Amino acid sequence: MRLSQQWCTTNAAETLSLCDFQGLQDIIPVSVVYWSRDLKKGWHFQPDAPRCTDDPINGKAYLREIYEMADPEYSDRVSVPVLWDKKEKTVVSNESLDLMFMFNSAFNDLCETDEQRSLDLYPSSHKEEVDSMVDWLKINFNIAVYQAGFADTQEGYDKAAKVVFDALDELEESLSKKRYLVADRLTICDICLFVSLIRFDMAYHGYFKLNKKRIVDYPNLWAYTRDLYQRPQIKETVDFTHIKRGYYETHKSINPYGIVPAGPILNMDGPHGRENLGAA
Question: Which residue in 4, 86, 119, 250 is a FRET match for 99, CA 20 to 30 A apart?
Answer without folding.
Answer: 250
